[in-house]
């Protein structure tokens, strides 16, 4: 009898446990399909188990069968729901989305319901119930319906196992792998155990009750367990793992005690003892149940609370039922007691929930602290709490006073930092701005925003940091407390500085470039200052030719040397810039009088003169007084300055220093116009604007004209006759000298041809060739080709080279000269004595004629014959086997001297001015007897 009762109680206990976990899972997230199916699974087991409990203790076979049929609703549907659940958690949801598959899934369950639940003709006697020591049990008949059920439950369980197995194999996530293995294992063990108890053992020992619902607790609780796991559960500490055994035992004990009470009440048993009676036992049972309830609430958390409520509610219902059944107040204490228990456990639960919430908050705080501590210690930025000018030393905040990155960035240990103020380690140049920032922050004038500053490391090196301060209010009373966050931006600054440097400097010389100059001028233009300001531009000419000849390295070395010399003039009022490749600008601030600028330029010119001279570089210094210029904008200002310096560079006068004046603008316009005309001539239009004049060269010994110098003339549309020195320079600057020179050469050769035609076969023509021309590739070849093409005698052609040729590579010039000389042409050194020439240098070039510059001839008018060195030049030239031509001879006196000192030829107004072609031809007819030596 007791064993029957016990078996029944076990089934009831299963019901309560399953109901508890089912409800708990469902209410934790009722929308999740897996949770819904889990609830369905729980209900199936509850029906199964409660049916079994009632069937076991039924008073007769007929009643037992009714409960068996009720129980069958549970076990018939259980396996279908289980498979459905497995398909859901393994993600095979698409399978049963089709209606037919749904039908297939639940068809066997439906058939079982037909066979074992609803009484009908198919299976009229589904149960063979026998009374045993363990109550009514069913002895299997193994008819076709039984076999169908076996096939259904084994088949479905195997499909479920297979699905789980494949899920496990395919899973890459370790959590899924573990989950699937555990569920798989629980199902296998339940299958094995169920088969052993309900099939094997029950067929051997007919008395043994079928324990399947109890065994189903294994997979059910395992699944429940797995559904609840693997969450980031902050309440883990309070929601410790629940003990299923203690839960089960508690439920069992509770049910036993309930049964005991009913038993005592129902049977009206009288216990004949002085010590204890039935009422006392019932009271004791109620007290123990109260204890169990409280224990469950306290120990097993929410699950325990649901269990407690369920058990006490059932108890309450039973007590009310008894009261109604017996129509007596016998169970009234039980009802009150149950209500009391429900109230107590609910209060307890609420209290516990409050504590749990509190603990949860604390735990959250702990996690947050851990999180912030990690961030603090691993942050790639330096963080420190400051107390005024010191780093904080407060023990309470020791852990968060300075983080590791802060010490790393500043290169000092925590202790070192705590012993210096932030002012001590701040770069002196940044201190003032830092203090201002700090002050503003303290007075809440600014919100916290980052600022870039420099710190000094112990080794003296500098680091750049982006720093941001914010008040640290939590230190309440100390208003000076703030948090300092720094990040190392040294590398970024280095790159930025490099970029800035590249943007603002000329990389070769390291001087500020045009960008900075313009910026400075613009900034200063806004400031209305009484101070006088000026710009001094030093313009280098010929640099292109040097590049062309010797390559960039050579000219770069020269530029560096010039820069070094100019740097010596720099101070806070004389700032040096290099706005373009071959020019330097001094920005002069606060000068006194104009003379000061003059003196300055003289000094600059003086310092550079010999160096530039030695390298064949021309210079011009343009000065623009900003205070007097009335120039509207910086761009125009610089343009005018550059033009002034260029004009200065071209200046044929001795001085190459010019102050800007509005008249110079006209010169610039003129230059542009002339440039335009040269372009037109070169491109073949308006060629008649270019023509030649020919100046006779008189040979003293033979007393006749032996040569003509071809001199180019430009008859400008706008300006009339333009001097050759002017337009030749413009052509050189515009890179048009080569084609223009070729046109001039051609005209000169035509004149030579004319001479030939007129029978003057012995008369030569000399042509002026600029340095760029002679250095141009194939110059000699092209010239010789032309000479040959016109059938002219090369010996009647002279090439006049100015002495700037000395500045260039003599070997290279000589190779061209030699080519020409080999062909019979004569080479003349023009303007000897003005620039770079010296006899030692002249010797290095293979020349035939030396043309003594007009300046030496002019001196003959003012100096006594014994004081003039012109005679020495003539005799020296003769020693070098050069024929001497005196240029610019205008007076008889000069002629006499030259003749007396053995000069070979003279050229000048004394003989004739340059003449037009026809006039020149006529000129040859002139009688020269007046010049004959007497
Ligand atoms: P240069 O080759 O030394 O030519 C002599 C210059 O002196 C000529 O000036 C000539 O007119 C001038 N002259 C000659 N005798 C006297 C005199 O007794 N008194 C004065 N005051 N001047 C005299 P021009 O024609 O103005 O030429 C100036 C310079 O222009 C030339 O100096 C030459 O270097 C250059 N030049 C002229 N034509 C050409 C050319 O076709 N090609 C190149 N590259 N340069 C040329
Ligand atoms: Mg000449
Ligand atoms: Mg000359």
3D architecture notes:
This protein has 934 residues and is of the alpha/beta class. 58% of the residues lie in helices and 14% in strands. The strands form four sheets. An eight-stranded mixed β-barrel has the order 13-14-16-17-18-19-20-21, surrounded by six helices. It is elongated. The site of ligand C2E has 23 residues, from strand 14, helix 26, strand 16, strand 17 and strand 18.
- Using DSSP, what is the number of strands? 21
Largest sheet: 8 strands, mixed, barrel
Helix content: 55-70%
Kindly report the average pLDDT value.
Answer: 86
> What small molecules does the structure contain?
ligand C2E, magnesium ion
What overall geometry do the principal axes of the alpha carbons give? elongated
Descriptive tags:
single chain; elongated; binds ligand C2E; 934 residues; alpha/beta; five-stranded antiparallel sheet; 35 helices; eight-stranded mixed barrel; binds magnesium ion
């Amino acid at each position: 009898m007791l064993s029957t009762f016990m078996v029944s109680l076990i089934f009831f206990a299963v019901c309560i446990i399953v109901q508890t976990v089912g409800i708990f899972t469902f209410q934790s997230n009722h929308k999740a399909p897996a949770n819904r199916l889990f609830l369905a699974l729980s209900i199936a087991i509850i029906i199964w188990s409660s049916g079994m409990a009632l069937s076991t203790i039924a008073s007769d076979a007929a009643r037992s069968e009714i409960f068996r049929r009720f129980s069958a609703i549970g076990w018939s549907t259980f396996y279908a729901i289980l498979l459905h659940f497995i398909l859901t958690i393994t993600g095979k949801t698409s399978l049963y989305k089709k209606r037919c598959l749904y039908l297939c899934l639940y068809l066997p369950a439906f058939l079982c319901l037909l066979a074992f639940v609803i009484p009908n003709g198919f299976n009229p006697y589904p149960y063979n119930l026998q009374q045993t020591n363990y109550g009514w049990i069913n002895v299997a008949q193994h008819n076709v319906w039984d076999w169908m059920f076996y096939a259904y439950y084994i088949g479905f369980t195997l499909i479920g196992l297979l699905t789980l197995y494949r899920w496990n194999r395919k899973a890459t996530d370790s959590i899924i792998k573990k989950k699937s293995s555990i569920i798989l294992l629980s199902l296998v063990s339940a299958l094995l155990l169920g088969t052993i108890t309900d099939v094997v053992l029950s067929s051997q020992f007919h008395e043994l009750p079928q324990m399947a619902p109890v065994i189903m607790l294994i997979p059910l609780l395992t699944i429940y367990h797995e559904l609840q796991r693997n969450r980031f559960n902050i309440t883990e500490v309070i929601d410790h793992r629940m003990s299923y055994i203690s839960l089960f035992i508690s439920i069992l004990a509770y049910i036993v005690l309930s049964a005991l009470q009913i038993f005592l009440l129902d049977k009206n048993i009288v216990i004949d003892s002085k010590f204890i009676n039935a009422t006392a036992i019932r009271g004791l049972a109620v007290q123990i149940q109260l204890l169990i309830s409280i224990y469950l609430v306290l120990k097993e958390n929410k699950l325990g609370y649901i269990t407690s409520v369920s058990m006490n509610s059932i108890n309450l219902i039973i007590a009310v039922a008894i009261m109604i059944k017996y129509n007596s107040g016998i169970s009234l204490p039980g009802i009150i007691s149950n209500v009391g228990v429900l109230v107590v456990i609910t209060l307890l639960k609420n209290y516990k929930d409050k504590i749990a919430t509190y603990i949860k908050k604390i735990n959250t705080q702990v996690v947050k602290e851990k999180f912030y501590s990690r961030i603090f210690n691993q942050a790639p930025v330096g963080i420190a709490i400051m107390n005024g000018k010191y780093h904080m030393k407060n023990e309470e905040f020791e852990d968060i006073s300075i983080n590791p990155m802060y010490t790393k960035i500043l290169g000092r240990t925590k202790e070192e930092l705590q012993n210096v103020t932030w002012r001590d380690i701040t770069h002196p140049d940044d201190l003032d701005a830092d203090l201002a920032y700090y002050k503003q922050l303290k007075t809440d004038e600014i919100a916290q925003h980052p600022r870039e500053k420099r710190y000094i490391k112990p080794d003296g090196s500098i680091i750049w940091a982006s720093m941001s301060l914010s008040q640290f209010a939590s230190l309440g009373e100390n208003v000076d407390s703030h948090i300092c966050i720094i990040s190392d931006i040294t590398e970024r600054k280095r790159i930025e500085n490099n970029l800035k440097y590249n943007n603002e400097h000329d990389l070769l010389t390291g001087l500020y470039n045009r960008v900075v100059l313009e910026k400075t001028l613009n900034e200063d233009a806004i400031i209305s200052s009484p101070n006088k300001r000026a710009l001094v531009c030093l313009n280098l000419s010929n640099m292109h030719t040097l590049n062309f000849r010797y390559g960039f390295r050579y000219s770069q070395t020269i530029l560096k040397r010039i820069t070094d010399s100019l740097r010596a003039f720099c101070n806070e009022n004389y700032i040096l810039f290099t706005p373009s490749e071959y020019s330097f600008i001094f920005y002069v601030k606060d000068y006194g009088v104009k003379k000061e600028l003059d003196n300055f330029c003289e000094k600059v010119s003086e310092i550079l003169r010999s160096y530039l001279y030695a390298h064949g570089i021309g210079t011009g210094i343009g000065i623009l007084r900003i205070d007097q210029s009335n120039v509207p904008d910086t761009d125009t200002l610089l343009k005018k300055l550059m033009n002034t310096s260029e004009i200065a560079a071209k200046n044929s006068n001795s001085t190459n220093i010019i102050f800007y004046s509005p008249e110079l603008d006209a010169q610039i316009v003129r230059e542009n116009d002339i440039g335009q005309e040269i372009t037109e001539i070169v491109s073949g239009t308006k060629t008649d604007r270019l023509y030649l004049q020919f100046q006779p060269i008189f040979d003293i010994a033979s007393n006749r004209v032996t040569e003509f110098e071809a001199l180019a003339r430009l008859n400008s549309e706008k300006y009339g006759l333009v001097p050759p020195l002017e337009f030749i320079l413009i052509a050189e600057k515009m890179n048009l000298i080569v084609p223009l020179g070729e046109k001039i050469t051609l005209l000169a050769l035509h004149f030579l041809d004319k001479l030939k035609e007129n029978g003057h076969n012995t008369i030569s023509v000399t042509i002026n060739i600029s340095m760029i021309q002679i250095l141009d590739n194939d110059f000699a070849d092209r010239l010789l080709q032309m000479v040959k093409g016109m059938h002219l005698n090369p010996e009647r052609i002279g090439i006049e080279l100015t002495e700037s040729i000395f500045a260039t590579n003599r070997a290279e010039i000589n190779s061209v000269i030699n080519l020409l000389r080999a062909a019979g042409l004569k080479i003349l050194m023009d303007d000897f004595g003005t620039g770079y020439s010296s006899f030692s240098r002249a010797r290095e070039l293979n020349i035939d004629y030396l043309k003594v510059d007009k300046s030496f001839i002019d001196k003959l008018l003012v100096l006594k014959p014994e004081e003039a060195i012109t005679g020495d030049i003539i005799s020296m030239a003769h020693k070098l086997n050069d024929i001497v031509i005196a240029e610019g001879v205008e007076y008889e006196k000069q002629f006499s001297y030259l003749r007396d000192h053995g000069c070979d030829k003279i050229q000048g107004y004394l003989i004739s001015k340059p003449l037009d072609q026809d006039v020149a031809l006529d000129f040859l007819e002139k009688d020269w007897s007046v010049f004959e030596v007497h």
